[in-house]
Amino acid sequence: MTILVTGGAGYIGSHTCVELLDAGYDVVVVDNYYNSVPAVLDRVEKITGKTLRRYDCDIRDRDGLEKVFSENKIDAVIHFAGLKAVGESTKLPLLYYENNIWGSIVLFEVMEKAGCKKIVFSSSATVYGNNPIPYKEDMPTGDVSSPYGRTKHFIEKILGDVYEADNSWSISLLRYFNPIGAHESGLIGEDPNGIPNNLMPYISRVAIGKLEKLTVFGGDYDTPDGTCIRDYIHVVDLARAHLCAVADILKTTGIEAYNIGNGKGSSVLEIINAFEQASGIKLNYVIGDRRAGDLPAFYADPTKANTRLGWHAEYGVDKMCLDTWNFQRKNPDGIR
Ligand code: NAD
Ligand code: WQD
Questions:
Q1: Rounded to whole angstroms, how far apart are CA atoms 165 and 150?
Q2: What are 39-73's pLDDT values in tens digits?
Q3: Boundaries of domain holding 132
Q4: Least enclosed by CB within 10 Å: which of 87, 128, 206, 216?
Q5: What confidence score (pLDDT) does residue 200 get?
Q6: 333 belongs to a structural domain
Q7: Which of 55, 148, 202, 258 is catalytic?
């Protein structure tokens, strides 16, 4: 079986390529390296001892994508390619809509033309907006606070319409919670350009001395320690969820959404504490103002993925912090 992985050189994509290759799939990657470097794919090959096919191609490039489908017999697609910075999306909404939504439409059209109608799509917990916690898949979605989040909501709806029009599609919408951690080898991990927006890469850059101090965004929330609560998920657990979803879409038709989270919330202070334990480093941090748009607390009810996909998260926050730190220490200047 051959799986096309769009955005396969990125953070979650690269970890998923490792799991796919280890499981015996042939892997074809399409990436334009907007937020990654080709060396990541060399490292995927080093970890697995296997090779993958790679195309330096933008998903908005219809001719380029058609070439990928004509040169490979693709059985299913895992679609990671997209822009993901929430703050940036409020400043550059058209770029986000064009890249994420238009890019996805081109991909779906090329898939349809090639007769490949099986796809796992990277969605996000952000589609739930302000729902009661824990989030469940049948809750209303779409009350979203950022253009980035809206791209995820709209693409879910587009895929819903695609399935309504043609029931031979098989579509899995994976709603990720907060992925952190890295591959145990320390060869691949999260390596954002510039100053990180997300908590864990910020923490690890403070720990390695590249940033001076972490600001905890708000200490006055209505939570046990006053800081926000999120459902952190090890990126390797998340990557393995894609294997379960691929196995499922290969044998069925339909469209289903799944929460991919641990089902447990951790506060910012708990994550800081877990990181300090794992690294032995005292983190320099201050409690600052709230960040606009942050919800006080959310976490997943992952029962549907547990029961229907047979997927379970294995790792806790200690392992997530240990592996993040191992990656950061081994790659102080990122992946080159
Ligand atoms: P990432 O930026 O590390 O990876 C995305 C990859 O897609 C990058 O390699 C980038 O170069 C590539 N890409 C972007 N636009 C492209 C285009 N037009 N054509 C070809 N390649 C393109 O991000 P990630 O953290 O690995 O996230 C992967 C997916 O999961 C994204 O769709 C993201 O929105 C979604 N997601 C991420 C998180 C998270 O916290 N990391 C949470 C929920 C959902
Ligand atoms: C986690 C917690 C911050 C940085 C975002 C997207 C979401 C999904 C995952 C893609 C929050 C706090 C952070 C810092 C802090 N991505 N924090 N200081 O905001 O939960 O989710 O990434 O789909 O859509 O919105 O993740 O890592 O930015 O923040 O105190 O310097 O850490 O306030 O409570 P978030 P995050």
A1: 22
A2: 999 999 999 999 999 999 999 999 999 999 999 99
A3: 2-181+233-261+306-314
A4: 87
A5: 98
A6: no
A7: 148
Mutation choice for ligand 1 from 12, 141, 144, CB with most ligand atoms inside 8 A:
12
pLDDT tens digits, residue range 5-47?
999 999 999 999 999 999 999 999 999 999 999 999 999 999 9
Sign of the torsion formed by the C-alpha atoms of 217, 221, 226 and 230: negative
Interval 163-179: pLDDT, tens: 999 999 999 999 999 99
Q: Is residue 135 part of a domain?
A: yes
What is the three-class DSSP state of 192?
Answer: coil
The structure tokens 């941090």 sit at: 285
Residue 322 placed within a domain: no
- Is-catalytic flag, 148? yes
Question: Which residue minimizes the CA distance to atom 23 of ligand 2?
Answer: 124
- The pLDDT of residue 266: 98
pLDDT greater than 90 at residue 318: yes
- Is 291 inside a domain boundary? no
The DSSP secondary structure of 258-270, one letter per residue, reads EEES-S--EEHHH
Category of 202 on φ-ψ map: left (φ > 0), alpha (ψ -120 to 50) or beta? alpha
Q: Give the number of other CB atoms < 10 A from CB of residue 53.
A: 15
Q: Is pLDDT above 90 for 193?
A: no
